[in-house]
Amino acid sequence: MLRRPVPAFRASGRRLLAALVPAVALAGLAMSGDGRTGALPSPAEAGPLTVATWNMCGVLRWNCAGTGDSDAKREQMERLATRFKAQVMLLQEACAADVEAVRDALGPSWHSAFQPYTRRDSEGQRSTVRCGASGRGDAGYALLSAYPLTDVRRVSSPQPDTGVQRGILCAFVAAYDVTVCTAHLTPHVGEGTPAQRDFRRDQLAALADAVPERRTVYGGDLNVDPPGEHNPDSWVWPEWPYGTHWECDEGSARATHESRHKLDYLFTDLPRTGCRVIDTGVSDHRALVIQVDSRVG
């Protein structure tokens, strides 16, 4: 695949070598499904692949108290699968119980992988982040797929010394011969002080290093606007992903957050046949949905 020229405003920088940790060695990584695989179609037989990314705003204390209850968020997850035909969902700020409930509701062919956020205090003690409502469990980032997920792995990336530890989770979808990754990057000024280090560039580099150059769809809530002359944070974008892959809404860059910023992304090398921004009505983020032709590439 030919690489597109890197825009002049982007410094190339040194890409990080991301350490991919096997899922079986990760404490807290939950993988679920019916345990059956059966005969999988080839990518040519499977046809178009539709992938959605959505920050569900499931952690009540993260300015999400007025964004809808668990039932409303689960309904919108199911709507992404049924009405908008998403076969894979990349989720952030999701509640473990909601992911499991929707996976089960969609049927026995659906699978999920979940990684909880952790919080590290000043004494180095870690704890998981809770969604804040009874019965919804830990908050985290997740993959939800209509086909089995294999080679599931959390990608190592630099994180703040204290506060919330977010991250990147990848898996392989054999039915489409595609690698998918969901990411949630650290906002520059979040729980920490204004002097906190900006982790986004190194985290973006780790994400870019985690995906293959071919046959991949990846993204999530990257907590940064697209690169460009009007974005003072353009320096955080490494050569990848824009230098190698196309973004779902590239050329339009419609807002995905209630602040009227584009913070959510889906990148791919496969031919894009559609891109939608969907207001679910139960989050401060809109869902982004891409359709790609998996028979090519």
Description:
This protein has 297 residues and is an alpha+beta fold. It has one domain: Deoxyribonuclease I, Chain A. It has four helices and 17 strands. It has helices spanning 43-46, 70-82, 96-106, 200-210, and strands at residues 20-22, 30-32, 48-55, 88-95, 111-116, 118-120, 126-128, 139-145, 150-155, 163-165, 167-173, 178-184, 216-221, 246-247, 264-268, 272-278, 287-293. Strands 1-9-11-12-13-15-14 form a seven-stranded mixed β-sheet. Strands 2-5-8-4-3-17-16 form a seven-stranded mixed β-sheet. Strands 7-6-10 form a three-stranded antiparallel β-sheet, with no helix packed on it. Strand 12 (178-184), helix 4 and strand 13 form a beta-alpha-beta unit. Helix 2 crosses helix 3. The longest helix has 13 residues, at 70-82. Residues 1-27 and 34-38 have low confidence and may be disordered.
